Amino acid sequence: MGIYRDRVVPHIVNVACGMRANDPLRERVCAGLSGRVVELGFGSGLNVPFYPPAVQSVSAVEPADLGWKLAAGRLASAPVPIERAGLDGQSLPFPDDSFDCALSTWTMCTIPDIASALAEVRRVLVAGGTLHFVEHGLAPDPGVQTWQHRLNPIQKVLAGGCNLDRDIRGLIEDAGFRMREVDIFYGEAGPRFIDAQSLGVAVSP
Ligand SMILES: C[S@@+](CC[C@H](N)C(=O)[O-])C[C@H]1O[C@@H](n2cnc3c(N)ncnc32)[C@H](O)[C@@H]1O
């Protein structure tokens, strides 16, 4: 499983997450980022072209060495300094109040202890700092939810620990963030059980 997760999943992620259909969502979620940004689950750096000019620096948190290697071209042409500053969103190596914004795109599904990771994001954001997110998760329809719960064990094995049925909005609110805006919708890239998206901005108190 270690070899599959370390050497295969980052390539799958690079291709699947790099689909053009995701570009408008990346553009929407990155809009409004500014100042010092921490990006959780940086992957292969597919958000880099979408950082707005107001972003001053990015601290990338990414456990997969191969993901970071696949980001090389995007890092070379990045308009802002980006450093791989952490390996695990569940334990961020930054002092309190270090960042103005946090970014997470299709990562909250995979971090094992997502409640701890969100508590860490809240800790490292300044008061009033914003968490920008687009995540797949629990669908709004009970019929789709039933399939998400059924298929979740298979998804976790095939997709490197990815969960289909996390309630993204609920998890963020339970971590103490105030939801400033959230749009929950079905995307166009895949079947509903995997393409129920939550896109929004939450504010750290
Ligand atoms: C589906 S990929 C999304 C990658 C990227 N955010 C994107 O939009 O293309 C999920 C990412 O979360 C990373 N990840 C897994 N566990 C993590 C953890 N504990 N902390 C931070 N990132 C993690 C994976 O290595 C992977 O790069």
Automatic annotation (TrEMBL):
Species classification: Bacteria, Bacillati, Actinomycetota, Actinomycetes, Mycobacteriales
Record keywords, A-Z: Methyltransferase, Transferase
GO terms under biological process: methylation
Ranges of residues in domain Methyltransferase type: 39-132
Keyword Methyltransferase recorded: yes
Highest taxon in the source lineage: Bacteria
Gene Ontology terms, MF aspect: S-adenosylmethionine-dependent methyltransferase activity
Matches recorded under Pfam families: Methyltransf_11 (PF08241)
Name assigned to this protein: SAM-dependent methyltransferase
Coiled coil start-end: none
Organism this protein belongs to: Nocardia donostiensis
